From TrEMBL:
One of the record's GO molecular function terms: hydrolase activity
InterPro entries reported for this sequence: Amidohydro-rel (IPR006680), Metal_Hydrolase (IPR032466)
Domain Amidohydrolase-related: 207-398
A matching Pfam family: Amidohydro_2
Protein name (database record): Amidohydrolase-related domain-containing protein
Amino acid sequence: MSTIAFEQLAHAAFTYPAIDNHTHPLLSALHKNDFAFEGLVSEAQGSALTEDAIHTLSCYRATRQLSELYGCADNWEAVKEKRGLLQYPELCKMNMERTGIQCLLLDDGLDDEGICEDINWHDQFSSSPSKRIIRIEIIAQNILKEQFVQKYLPVTINTASSLLSTFSTAFDEELTKAAQDPLIAGYKSIVCYRTGLDVYPSSASLEDIEESLMRAMSLYLQTGRLWLAEKHFNDYLVRITMEIAGKYKKPVQFHTGLGDSDITLTRSSPAHLQPLLSAFPNTPVILLHSSYPFTREAGYLAAVYRNVYLDFGEIFPLVSKEGQRNVLRQVLELCPTNKILWSTDGHWWPETYYLGTIQAREVLYEILAESVGRSELTEQQAVGIVHRVLFENSNRIYSLGLEPDLELGEEAAKKWAKVLSNVFEK
């Protein structure tokens, strides 16, 4: 690597071990084909996914990188065919061993049907045990399903009031237990999907909360599906979580920005969280997914609120390379580098981890190298940023107590040396 302009920076960016601070379990072998593989490169659904996503710049880039990995023709169908011929353990290993990820923080709330591998199964691909992130809306739904028995029928404001009382006790106990569990690294809320990020920082009236719970349970009786999307009740869940998380200094992750069509885009900007952030200054808050396309708003919040941190994940591989570069530039415009975290948002397919890692490492190197080249940073300062965003910040914020496994990163980089050579030929 002696021909690289900034050799120490390149070594750090491509070999330093990483903590994946937000990710999801892989599908089990039995269910590996349950979802359209095009979901690797897009959050779209239906024909917008299967017919349109393959024509994006992000898909063209992912196709090239995966064709190099699998040794097949550089086209989407060839990649799908080749991966389909591999035994599932081999497929997972081929992708995961190239990431240099030392620890996974897994949100298993996507899997309500038992189609994914369990959290401990993923430890074979990392040198530190995986940790769990619990999704509060799923915890709430499970408690309500368990408690909603005959005595709460018919659904009226009176039975909803009684249910809310018993639910609140159980929910508080469950989150407190989780806060004290060393295997659980933090909480996550998807209120962005359900009712938006404009969460009321102070409590609504008890009657409003009871009425919203009554509507949710009435719909459950009609459809057989419990889906909490009532604003007063969902906001209530977030406030309880923020209180407990602040007491125990457990981070709360919020989905922000980039998501599928279930999100109301205008309510997905983290700027809506500002009153909540002010109301709970002792609660660590992680803004996920670069808050794309609201990255600058997220960087501002992380700059002015001591308890706010910014994750730059999911844009790898969903956004084009130039888009990724622009997002990272926006993150670095204002956000302190001791408050930036990295993740893959890996899910379902092992390729999400592989692409999420190699693309992030490549863009991180390139953007920081540009800054060093313009004398905005010294190379040592840039190396320090790499260490912080890939490992040290997550290690500190989630209180993981890990030491970086330097050998892990070195071995991973050797396995995708061809990708590295492509970077350094530029």
